[in-house]
Amino acid sequence: MSKADYLKSLSLLHIFERLQRGEVIRTKEEMERFNVSRKTIQRYIGSLREYLAEFSTYDFSAKIIYDQKKQGYVLIREEDSWLSKKEILVLAKVLLESRAFTNGEMDDLLDKLILQAEPEKQEQITEVISNERFHYTPVKHNQSLIEIIWDLSESVRKQQVVEITYKSLNKSQPTKYRVKPVSIIFSDFYFYLIAYMCDRDFDHPTVFRVDRINNYTEDDENFNMPYLERFKPGEFRKRVQFMFNGELSRIKFKYYSKNIEHILDRLPTAEVIEEIEKGYIIKAEVYSEFGLRIWLLSQGKSIEVLKPESLRQQMQELIEGMLEVYK
After folding, report:
1. Which residues contact 231 (CB under 8 A, 6 or more apart)?
2. At what angle do helices 289-298 and 309-325 cross, to 10 degrees?
3. Which of 114, 141, 184, 319 is the most buried (most CB within 10 A)?
4. Helix (H) or strand (E) run with residue 283 in it
5. CA–CA separation, 176 and 200 (whole Å)
6. Which has the closest alpha carbon to 79: 94, 96, 62, 95?
7. Quick check: helix, strand or coil at residue 135?
8. Is 102 exposed, middle or buried (0-12, 13-18, 19+ CB in 10 A)?
9. Do 242 and 298 contact (CB within 8 A), yes or no?
10. By CB neighbour count within 10 A (0-12 exposed, 13-18 middle, 19+ buried), where does 237 fall?
11. What DSSP string describes 256-277?
């Protein structure tokens, strides 16, 4: 490629990138920017128009027009090919509420998300979320996780064994594990790696908080899980509370309220067995009674555990212990 062709390619990419950001391309300004003639700028615009018409993945929904009011060229797309300002608003609010990313990551994500809106609506969206964005507070680990989440997701996709160095809260030193990663899940402010241990024969997977993984390397070894035995993230999420892993338990309890929606949202596997005078009798399946106990305690006297008996006994002991604290 000659130097002239190279400079032309750079100029075209620069103009197209700015058009995508919603900027107005004015001929005189571009002549000065690239030190070229008016005809050259017009040829650049013509080349970009040809690209959009023939090769672009926009599927003919985008084109470059001359806007008389703005006195320059702009990129327009059919409305359906942009995210609407309402869609971007709710996505931005979900991102901000997650608190899962550093301030820098959140700013980058929001900026890129807003760029998916029609250019004339970007300023409006920015204004609507400005207060929440200013007061955004990430969780305390303050670690950049996007790269490790992608790398581990690739290991999941390739079914590649990974060696991780993990810092547990109950251990003074990090521990090394060889694991078979099967999913990355987000829940309650944190990202989690779901994996089966290579050296332990557990029926259930182990849960690792991604921000506590100090180091990770892919092994040369691949693993294979038969289709019927493959981990199903959606089914796991239905049965796990606060991401505590453990064996699957079947529970039954009384719920002394008519607000059944609250229970069905929190425990997606919950089924109403019987409607009683003051509420309902409900059954559900959950992983880890430890995580379940945390949630049950948060419900106060509105829930009475019926089965299993061991869980009912544990709840009684916990409540008695709490009473001792408040004496």
Report:
1. 182, 183, 194, 205, 225
2. 50
3. 114
4. strand 279-287
5. 14
6. 62
7. coil
8. middle
9. no
10. middle
11. -SS-HHHHHHH-TT-EEEEEET
User: What are the structure tokens assigned to 26, written together?
Assistant: 């004015």
What count of other Cβ atoms lies within 10 Å of the Cβ of residue 7? 14
Task: Please report the pLDDT score of residue 72 as a whole number.
Answer: 92
Residue type at 57 in one-letter notation:
T
Q: What's the CATH number for 146-230?
A: 2.30.30
Question: How far is the first Cα of the chain from the last one, in angstroms, to the nearest whole number?
Answer: 83
CATH topology of domain 248-325: Alpha-Beta Plaits (3.30.70)
- H-assigned helices in 170-288: 233-239, 260-266
Q: Which two tokens stand for residue 6?
A: 């190279």
CA angle 27, 30, 33 (to 5 degrees): 155
Chunked mean pLDDT (size 10), the chain, 327 residues: 77 87 88 90 89 65 85 79 80 92 93 82 88 92 91 93 90 90 90 89 84 91 71 74 78 91 88 91 87 88 93 92 89
How far CA 136 is from CA of 92, 94, 122, in Å, comes to 12, 12, 20
3-79 CATH pick, 3.40.50.720, 3.90.1150.10, 1.10.10.10, 3.40.190.10 = 1.10.10.10
How many angstroms separate the CA atoms of 63 and 51, rounded? 10
Residue with tokens 């008695």: 320
Could you give the CA distance from residue 183 to residue 232 in angstroms, rounded to a whole number? 8
Which H/E stretch holds residue 112?
helix 103-114
| Cα(95)–Cα(182) distance, integer angstroms | 24
Q: What pLDDT, on a 0 to 100 scale, did the predictor assign at position 228? A: 46
Q: At 7, phi and psi to the nearest 5?
A: -65, -35
Q: What is the pLDDT of residue 77?
A: 72
Sorted by where each begins, the domain ranges of the chain are 3-79, 85-134, 146-230, 248-325
